Amino acid sequence: MTEDTYVGAIDQGTTGTRFIVFDHDGEVVANAYEKHDQYYPEPGWVEHDPMEIWTNTKDVITQALGWADIGPEQLAAIGVTNQRETTLLWDADTGTPIYNAIVWQDRRTTERIETLEENGAVETIREKTGLEPDAYFSATKAEWLLEEADPIKMERARPSDVRDRAEAGEILFGTIDSWLIYNLTGEHVTEVTNASRTMLYNIHDLEWDDDLLAEFSIPETILPEVRPSSDEATYGTTDPDGFLGAEIPVAGALGDQQAALFGQTCFDPGDAKNTYGTGSFFLMNTGDDAVESDHGLLTTIAYQRSGEDVQYALEGSIFVTGAAIEWLEDVSLIDDPGETAELARSVDSTDGVYVVPAFTGLGAPHWDQRARGTIVGMTRGTRREHIVRATLESIAYQTRDVAEAMEGDSGIEMTSLKVDGGAVKNNFLCQLQSDVIGSQIVRPVVDETTALGAAYAAGLAVDYWADLEQLRNNWRVDREFEPEIDPDVADQRHERWIDAVERSRGWAREES
C-alpha cells in the first residue's frame, strides 16, 4: 500500500453516524458525524428511520473525505461497525424499508419473551445462542415486524402481505450492518458477530438455527449470508457510478462492542474492555472457548478472521449509562454533559442518594425487563449536585456488577480494564470507576476504538495492515487511573447500591 492510502470506517451508532479515516499508524485523519432522530411512538418503543441513517452515512463519508482533501480512490477499504440488535426489513426489489428500524433498546416484545420463559425455552436459547432471552435481541423484533408492522413504506404492499412476501423471498431482514453493506455494495450479507446477537444464530455450529427460526416464525429466505468479520473475499465493492464515484472494497464489519474489543487490541484470552456509550458494554476475550456464564453474562462471538476459527467473548450488557447523562440534560439538571464532573466534584458524596437508571430495564447481570429508573435516599437537603454525582456513580456501580460476574465466570481477577467511548473523556468518571471497581483503568490515545476496530478488520482483509502484532504496536496509552479510596468503603457503597437496584426491580407491571 502506498503512503497516501487510508482505511475508512462507518460507525453507525444509536444516536448518530460517524465516518472516520485512519492511516497506517491507526491515527485519525478525517472525522465527520451526523445525529439522527429518535422516535418513541409508544412507551417503551424506540425506532429509527433507516433511510435517514443511509442518507447520513453518505453525507458523513462525503464530508470527511472533503474536509481532509482525500479522494475516494485513496481508500484501500471500508469497514462497518454498528449498533447491534437493531432490526429492519426491506423490499428486496426496491430497497425500501417496510417500517422503521426497531432499536435494541425497544421493549415492545417483552410479553413475547415472558411467554418463552413460561414455555421453558430459556435454556435452549442460552445453549444455542449464548444469550439471555430478552426483547433486546433481534428475533422478537423481526417476528413483530412480520406480524404487526403496517407496511406503509413498502411499494405495492398490503397490510396482510408482509409475511407472504417474506416467504417468497421478496423481503430482506438485517441488522444495521446488513442495511449499510446492502446499500454500499448491493449484497445481502451480515458478519458473524452481528449474527450472534440476533437470537437466531447458533454460535457453536456457526449457522442460522432451524429450531429458533421455527420458534419465531422467521423464513430462512429473508436471512443474510453470514461472513467473517475480516473477509479477504470482501463483502463487495462500492458502485463506481454511485455517490463515491469509486470502486472500494467493503471488507470488514463488527458489531460495535466487538469492534471496540478489536480496536483495543484485546486479542488474547483474558483481555477486557468496557465501552461507555448510550449503554456500556464490558467484553472479555475468551479465545476459542465459548464460556458459559453462571452469573448472568452473555456468551458471544468476539470476531473471526478469514480462514481462522471464531474467537469468543463474555459480555456484560448495561443498557443505560451515557443515556443517563442525556436524561440529566433532558430534565434540565444540567445544561451540557461537560458540567457533570464539576458538579459531582462540588460535593464530597451523594449524601446517601442512589440513582438506578433502569429506564429500559436492567441488563447484565440482573436481567429484569420490568425494572425502571429509580432515585432513592433523597432528603430535603438533596441538591442537583448529589443527583448528578449519583448518576455518574451509577455508571461505575453497574460496571462493577459486571466485573464481579466476569471474574466469577472466567476465574480471572480483574487488575486492569481498557476503556473507551465518549464518557471516558471525563477524568472524574474514570477515577471514580477505578475507585469503585478496585482496579487500574487504562484510557488509550485514540478513543474512537469502535471505528478503529472496524477499520482494522477491513484493513487486515486487504493487507493494509500485515498482522495483529502491527495493530498492537499502534495502541498507545493516554492515561492510567489507579484506585484511591479504601476498598472497604468501596465495598460498603456498592452493597448499598445493590439495595437500591432491588427497589427498581419489577416496577413496570401491566395496569389491571
From TrEMBL:
Record NCBIfam families: glycerol_kin, PRK00047.1
Pathway named in the protein's UniProt entry: Polyol metabolism; glycerol degradation via glycerol kinase pathway; sn-glycerol 3-phosphate from glycerol: step 1/1
Enzymatic reactions: glycerol + ATP = sn-glycerol 3-phosphate + ADP + H(+)
Domain Carbohydrate kinase FGGY C-terminal: 273-461
Family membership noted in the UniProt record: Belongs to the FGGY kinase family.
Broad EC category: transferase
Chain positions recorded as glycerol binding sites: R84, E85, Y136, D256, Q257
Function comment: Key enzyme in the regulation of glycerol uptake and metabolism. Catalyzes the phosphorylation of glycerol to yield sn-glycerol 3-phosphate.
GO MF entries: ATP binding; glycerol kinase activity
Enzyme Commission (EC) number: 2.7.1.30
Name by which UniProt lists this protein: Glycerol kinase
Binding site for ATP: T14, T15, T278, G322, G422
Domain of life: Archaea
Transport in keyword set: no
Keyword annotations of the record: ATP-binding, Glycerol metabolism, Kinase, Nucleotide-binding, Transferase
